[in-house]
Amino acid sequence: MDFQLLCSHMNNNSLSGQIPPELSRLPSLVHMLLDNNNLSGYLPPELAQLPKLLIIQLDNNNFSGSSIPPSYGNITTLLKLSLRNCSLEGPAPDVSGIPQLGYLDVSWNQLTGPIPSGQLASNITTIDFSHNRLNGSIPASFSSLPNLQRLSLDNNNLDGSVPSDVWRNIDFSGNRSLILDFQNNALTNLSNPLTPPANVTIMLSGNPVCQSQNQLNIAQYCQSTPEVNPGGGSIDNSSLCAPCATDLPLESVLKAPNPCSCGVPLYVDYRLKSPGFWDILFPMKRSFRSTCRRGSFSTRTSWKLPLSCGKKAQGSR
After folding, report:
1. What would be one Gene Ontology cellular-component term for the protein (predicted)?
2. If I label 142, which of 22, 50, 170, 269 is the partner at 20 to 30 A Cα–Cα?
3. Average pLDDT over residues 50-60
4. Does residue 291 sit in the same domain as residue 166?
């Protein structure tokens, strides 16, 4: 029998030790979820050899002394890279070579050096470099991301100017919004006066620019906000993602590889002409729903489709 492991979902356990490099020998692996464990050691660069890998999620482990392998920037299939609160050191990862990356979180580590300036994927929604030791300026490439919803660079040593055009290529129709968190850095001035749309939230508290008397309207962006504790389990993605647009019947799809995705609900009707079928089906409705998830609909996606409700309705004869 040919056994193929598709998903490694071993998060929220008490696993310890090193991530086995041998996992790179599982060519069908698509999900690597090992967050909220007691893992240590180094991050295996060999994981970049997995040809179908969509998600790497290793939050809240202790890889002290380890750095993020540069090879992770070559995983062209990756949709989500989340290494939050892992005691990682070294440079920030350059993920500009990942064409479909939608979610990047390397916050609460000890990363040093500048933020890579390469152009990120156009469909990225969340970028979080917060709570590190990064320096240099904020890359201009962040102003060319049409689907960006949250950019968190707070609690670093970034200097230079506050960018005034991150939102220039974003369509704010419906209720789309953007959060820019630049708090507690060393930003000293504005490249241009800040005139963001109403859907944009800018946070600058803890920067020298907030002490400047000649910056118009700067005070409204300099109010401090509470910090988020990285411990206590995975962060609730719903609190980091902007709401779905209202110009379409969209709903949040938090279980998708990119947790800030929005999707249109899919409604499927099964017509059972004989009343006796329902009498048989109703006691087994849980099994029936599971069968639907494993059927032709779920083969079109890389994650399970949530089946939220089912009901009996009068049909035509």
Report:
1. membrane
2. 50
3. 95
4. no
